[in-house]
Amino acid sequence: MHILLADALFTDGTILRDHGIVFDKTIIDVSPNDTLRSRYGEQCTELGEGSVLIPGLINSHVHLEFSANRSTLTYGEFMPWLSSVIAARDELVNECDDGCTTRTIEMMLSNGITAFGAVSSYGFDLEPCFKAPQKVVFFNELIGSDPMMADALYGNFQERLFASQELKREGFYPSVAIHSPYSVHRVLIQKGLKYAQDKELRVTAHFMESPAEREWLDSNSGAFAPFFQNFLKQTQAANTAEEFLSYFRDVPTLFTHVVQASDKELSTIAEGNHTIIHCPISNRLLGNGVLDLKPLEEKTIRFVCGTDGLSSNYTLDL
Ligand SMILES: [Zn+2]
What we know:
The structure is a single chain. This protein is of the alpha/beta class. The protein has two domains: 2-53, Urease, subunit C, domain 1 (Roll), CATH 2.30.40.10; 57-305, Metal-dependent hydrolases (TIM Barrel, Alpha-Beta Barrel), CATH 3.20.20.140. The chain has twelve helices and 15 strands. The strands form three sheets. The chain has an eight-stranded parallel sheet. A four-stranded mixed sheet has the order 5-4-1-6, with helices on one face. The longest helix has 18 residues, at 78-95. The mean pLDDT is 95. It binds zinc ion. Zinc ion binds at residues 61, 63, 119, 206, 256, 308.
């Protein structure tokens, strides 16, 4: 059991002066410091002048494998950024070893983040996430729009997912990330979601992050067109936005960004009981626009905040 006495304690929207907390795994008591001092005496830890106790923060969306980035990537617009990620991907991922990932996790802890959602593209961050002191939702990412490659890519995804499922500790949740509507073939999406549903795993997906994604999914044109043509010989989007959302009908999902979603898509998100992950700094650095919170309120769509990775933010401090 621990007893912490602080100058102030923030709970349920209220600031309580000279209050402390008694807890082990859960909170046992919140009381004035004098009460706790007389009850527990020497067992109390005085946090001192200016100390504030607040609930742990949750960073719901990070990409730890890209934590080596400081100034390698191009900001300002989504497509130049994505191209710079693809060009520097190997270098950045190789530069971030377990020590780099662990330091990034520690940085989050020092910023009050006691739980985070890590989207893992390669599984290189598995070990540090498993050893982290925080609660971790470990999202193994499924990606691949080329049907010819579907089996191989699904096999690679399964390998990473199974490896994370073998590691067991309290507060570590192996989960599934579907990369995005433009990058994952429907066969893969449906397979991944079926597995997640069967095993009751949490699910996340990027959705409607950039104006370029909007244009590509709506009309197979815009800045994504030459990108897909050059990299994958693809002239048509892997899914329309509507098709993509329909696969998630029965799987409550954490959709990340959703900045460019239409009113109809937001209604579908509300009907599906989904949640939005809002990463405002990432959206700003990549010039993707601003998430309008008003329709979210009107449609009673829940949203939580995230920083996104150091690939599109300068800090993981919420
Ligand atoms: Zn992301």
